[in-house]
Amino acid sequence: MKKELSDFFSKQSYKVKARVRKEAVKKAEENCIKYGKKIEEFTLDEWKKLVAEYQKPDLGRAIWQIVNTLGSIVAIWIALFFTMGISWWLTIGFSVLAGLFLVRSFIIFHDCGHGSFFKSRKANNILGFITGMSVFTPYHHWRWEHARHHATNGDLDRRGIGDIWTLTVREYLTSSRMTRFNYRLVRNPFILFVFAPLFLFMVLERFPSKKCKPRERRSVHIMNFALLIWCVSMSSIFGIIPFLIIQVTMMAVAGTCGIWLFYVQHQFEDTYWAQGDDWDFTAAAMEGSSYYKLPRIMQWFSGNIGFHHIHHLNALIPNYNLERCHKSDPFFQVAPELNLLSSLKSLKFRLWDEDNSKMIGFRELKRQLAMEEGFKQAT
Questions:
Q1: Is the distance from CB of 310 to CB of 332 less than 8 angstroms?
Q2: What CA–CA distance (Å, rounded) separates 250 from 253?
Q3: Cα distance between residue 175 and residue 181, in whole Å
């Protein structure tokens, strides 16, 4: 039975690599008894039924998330008004805290974009616009971009929208000197996690994509107008400079955390990239999206998005159900697992090595090229 299960996870329709932990196999054996048949006999439609109950929105949980997230943000803004007269260090501290709540607000915004937070599409759109304002992101435009990300995640032929710029080793080596310079600059950790988040949310999100439709284009302009009203109103209350310091601090914290989460969920060493007919949606979800196991408090602020493999398997599962779905079946527990320490290794990964099917850094590429040169000279 154990051999059959291991073969299933590594060879069958899901194309999951051999990362199966012993405890997952043991639980899978128990589920074979529970379901009355071998797990390799399950069809795609059958395992989809396993997650069906988790994609049902829960109004109580949704409202509670709104209260403890948006309510907290409002409370912090009120507190900030009074802290300015006490200590600017206290003001900055509260601004950092607000930034963490903005991460959680973005997850609600993200769920609304998938239509998973509420049953009502209208309710999702309204809340999506409100939470979008909190993170300076136009709702319908972002939803269009993010849908492309889900549809093309891990597909080398369809990169470029809603993802992080990733080149293969061959592409990098055959690129112009300027392209390679730009790529190294963009993939620099300081640029990627300090400069880029602010530039993305405060500048780039103000302009619609050339490929988007009129509705998405309008959403950018409407959001820009709404944010103009917000900035003018808050500047009149706090003062222009104090408001800018507070708002930029919030966005810097939220943006850095958000980009980091997105980065480690797809840019780890054994991630998934494929091309043409070799690309598989489920394999991209289970192999190309990590399970980021975070401390409980960090999991709360990040809205359970660490269960990213579950989210990519079925984007209709709201964030408050992701953990329960992950724990419900051993199939969901074989995804690549990262923790805070192991995720730091992702900082060195820059390029997709097609020959070895893994992400590598520039140092590793240099080592490989030196070995090839040495081999040529030896022969």
A1: yes
A2: 5
A3: 10
Ordered by start, the domain boundaries in the chain are: 1-42, 52-379
Mention every residue, 6+ apart, whose C-beta is less than 8 A from residue 130.
70
Query: What does the angle CA 245 – CA 193 – CA 338 come to, to the nearest 5 degrees?
Result: 130
Spell out the long-range contacts of 203-208 with Cβ–Cβ below 8 A and sequence spacing 24 or more: 205/136, 205/137, 205/138, 205/141, 205/142, 208/138, 208/141
What is the rounded end-to-end Cα distance, in angstroms, of the chain? Answer: 49
Burial class (CB in 10 A: 0-12, 13-18, 19+), 45: exposed
Interval 323-359: pLDDT, tens: 999 988 777 787 889 999 999 999 999 999 999 999 9
How many residues does this entry show for the chain? 379
Distance in angstroms (rounded) separating the CA atoms of residues 160 and 143: 15
How many whole angstroms from its chain centre is CA 240? 33
Round to whole Å and give the CA distance between 84 and 249: 14
User: Could you give the CA distance from residue 140 to residue 215 in angstroms, rounded to a whole number?
Assistant: 7
- The Cα–Cα gap between 4 and 10 comes to 10
β-bridge pairing 291-292 and 358-360: unpaired
Q: Strand, coil or helix: what is 338? A: strand
* Helix (H/G/I), strand (E/B), else coil: 31: helix
Can you give the pTM of this predicted structure? 0.86
Asked if 291 and 309 count as a contact pair (C-beta separation under 8 A), the reply is yes
- Name the strand (E) or helix (H) holding 358: strand 358-360
Do the Cβ atoms of 312 and 293 come closer than 8 Å? no
d(CA 233, CA 308): 37
Where is 214: in which H helix or E strand? Answer: helix 214-238
Q: For the chain, give the longest Cα–Cα distance.
A: 75
- Render pLDDT for 157-213 as a digit per residue (tens, 0 to 9): 998 878 899 999 999 999 999 999 999 999 999 999 999 999 999 999 999 998 889
Give the residue carrying structure tokens 């997952």: 24
CB atoms within 10 A of CB 116: 23
CB burial of residue 308 (10 Å; 0-12, 13-18, 19+): buried
